[in-house]
Amino acid sequence: MKPLPMKKFFVDPSIGRAESLPSSAFVDSEFLELELGTIFAQTWLLTPCENVPEDGPATSIDSLARSNSRVPFNLLGKPFFLQRGKHGRLNCFPNVCTHAWHPLVESSSVGGAIICPQHGRQFDNDGKFVAQAGFEKIDGFPRESDHLRSVHVDEWGQWAFVSTSEPLAPFHDFIETVQQSVPGIELASLRRYHFNGEVREVEGNWKQHAWNYMDNFHIKFVHKGPGGLADAIVLASYRTELYKFSALQWAYARDEKNGFDPQLLADRFRDPKNPTRRVFALWWFVFPNITLNFYPWGLSVNVYMPIPGKPDKTLFLWFQYALDEQKFQRRNSTWLSEQVDAEDIEAIGLVSIGAKSGFAPRGRFAPNEETGPHWFHRLVYQTVFEHRTTQ
Ligand code: FES
Ligand SMILES: [Fe+2]
C-alpha cells in the first residue's frame, strides 16, 4: 500500500503552546526526502563530509590552498567538486559532465582545464564550456546548460561550506555570531588531529541529535555527577542564546583553571561581578546540523548527516582541532569530551526506539528549560513548510 503523503503539521512560535515535531518526522523516509529538498538544499553544509576516509588523510580545504587545485567530494550522496580559481576564489560545481554525466574530477589534483575522461569535453576553472572535438558545428551551442552550474560556496577558517540550492540567507548570516564570540582564536591555525571513529553511523534521526544538543534540561540527568559535566560547570550559570540560524550554550567552569583565557573570547563572557570566573566551553549549533564546540583545548566539530533512505540513522562526524597542545591531551579527563558524547549517543539510541514505537505523542516544552529544543523544532518546521516566506 502506498504510504499517505506526509501530513503538514505546525510548530507554534509560542513555547507555552507548542508541541514538538511529530515522531513521524523522525522515522518516515518521506519526511527525510522533504528535508533533503528543503533544509539540506537551502542551508550551508560543511564539506567534505561522508567521503572522509577513516584512516586516511581527510580531504580538507588545505588541499585547495594552491590556485587551480580541485577536490571531489560527496554530500548526501551527490557528487561535487571544489575548485580554487586563479585569483584565489573558491568555486564549487556538481561533479557531473554536462554532456553525458560522467564525473569530471576523479581525484584531488592541480591542473589547467577540466577535461572529462569520458569524451573529452573541456571546461575552464570557472566551469565554462571551452571545447569538445565533434561539437564544432552545432547550432545554438554551447547553451547555458552546457556550462557547469555554480554551487554556492563560502569559506570560514579552514573549512568550506556549500549550499546546493538558493540558501535561506548568506553564509555570513549563519556564522557571524560564532565568529564574534571567539575574536582571540585564529581558526585557520587550529591543528587537526585524526582519530579512528571520526565518522560513525549512529542510531537516531539527525534531528534527534540536534534536539539533544540544544537541550540543556538533560544535563543534570544524563551528564550528572559525580564525575559528569554537571559537576564540571556552574550549572546555575548555564545560558542558551538563540539567534536566527545559530544558537549558543555556555557556562562558567566550576574550577576556574579549567576555563578559557578571557582574551580568547568576546568581552561579554566576562563576569563583572566575579572577574575570576572563566568560561568552560562555548557550544555553538549552526542550523541545521553543525556543532562547533570551543574549549580551552581547541575545537570539536560535529556534524549530524542524514543518510538518504535511512531516516532513523545518522552519520556522526567528529573532528578534533588543537588550540593548546597540552590541554588537548586533557580534553577527555578534564573537559569530558568523549564521555559526554558517549552519554548523549546512548540516550539518543534509547529515544530512537521510542520514536519508532508508535507510542510517541507530540511532546510539550518546559518554557524555561527548553527554549533551545523549541527553537530548533520551530526552525525545522518553518524551513520545511514555510520556506522563505517567513524571512
Ligand atoms: S560525459 Fe563528459 S564528455 Fe561525454
Ligand atoms: Fe548531552
Distance between the termini: 38 Å
Mean pLDDT: 91
CATH topology of the largest domain: Naphthalene 1,2-dioxygenase Alpha Subunit, Chain A, domain 1
- What characteristic shape results from the CA principal axes? globular
Known CATH architecture of the largest domain: Alpha-Beta Complex
Number of strands: 18
Radius of gyration, in Å, reads: 22 Å
Number of helices: 10
> Can you tell me the CATH superfamily of the largest domain?
Naphthalene 1,2-dioxygenase Alpha Subunit, Chain A, domain 1
Number of domains in the coordinates? Answer: 2
Question: Which structural category fits the helices and strands?
Answer: alpha+beta
Largest sheet: 8 strands, antiparallel
Q: H/E series, N to C?
A: HHHEEEEEEEEEEHEEHHHEEEEEEHHH
CATH class of the largest domain, named Alpha Beta
User: Which stretches of 5+ consecutive residues score pLDDT under 50?
Assistant: 49-60
Explain this structure.
The chain is α+β, with helices and mostly antiparallel strands and 391 residues long. It folds into two domains: 118 residues, 3-layer Sandwich (Rieske Iron-sulfur Protein), CATH 2.102.10; 220 residues, Naphthalene 1,2-dioxygenase Alpha Subunit, Chain A, domain 1. The strands form four sheets. Strands 11, 12, 13, 14, 15, 16, 17 and 18 form an eight-stranded antiparallel β-sheet that branches. It has a four-stranded antiparallel β-sheet with strand order 4-3-2-5, with no helix packed on it. A three-stranded antiparallel β-sheet has the order 1-10-9. The longest helix has 20 residues. It starts with 23 loop residues before the first helix and ends in a 5-residue tail after the last helix. It binds FE2/S2 (inorganic) cluster and fe (ii) ion. The site of fe (ii) ion has 6 residues, from α9.
